[in-house]
Amino acid sequence: MKELTFVVVDDAVFMRTLLKKIIEEVETYKVVAEGANGFEAIQKAQLFKPDIMTLDITMPDMDGLTAVKEILKCSPDTKIIMVSAMGQQSMVIEAIKQGAKDFVVKPFEKSRVLQAIKNVTEN
């Protein structure tokens, strides 16, 4: 099976570290870059064309919701998994309409993160 590449975007270093750790426990998953806001997410998408990007909804400078369309313009094959806090359902629904493929809610469980990855790679 080919290696899947990931970009992890969250303004909280702790959350990026946690997600990266969960993702890289799978032998064929590799985090190639990280970002702290929507602008960085777009830059990393252009540069790395990752298979999957985890994208926090609430970030400074540019939020994840705003970034979804731009990311898919420059890297149309990237599958986006939104990362949201509790109570952000309407924003998650909007992100899915914009082209995101799945979501995980903070604080996330490892099994749910891996399930979301599986969901987006099988569809």
Automatic annotation (TrEMBL):
<feature type="modified residue" description="4-aspartylphosphate">
    <location>
        <position position="56"/>
    </location>
</feature>
<keyword id="KW-0597">Phosphoprotein</keyword>
<dbReference type="Pfam" id="PF00072">
    <property type="entry name" value="Response_reg"/>
</dbReference>
<comment type="function">
    <text>May play the central regulatory role in sporulation. It may be an element of the effector pathway responsible for the activation of sporulation genes in response to nutritional stress. Spo0A may act in concert with spo0H (a sigma factor) to control the expression of some genes that are critical to the sporulation process.</text>
</comment>
<dbReference type="InterPro" id="IPR001789">
    <property type="entry name" value="Sig_transdc_resp-reg_receiver"/>
</dbReference>
<feature type="domain" description="Response regulatory">
    <location>
        <begin position="5"/>
        <end position="121"/>
    </location>
</feature>
<dbReference type="InterPro" id="IPR011006">
    <property type="entry name" value="CheY-like_superfamily"/>
</dbReference>
<dbReference type="GO" id="GO:0000160">
    <property type="term" value="P:phosphorelay signal transduction system"/>
</dbReference>
<protein>
    <recommendedName>
        <fullName>Stage 0 sporulation protein A homolog</fullName>
    </recommendedName>
</protein>
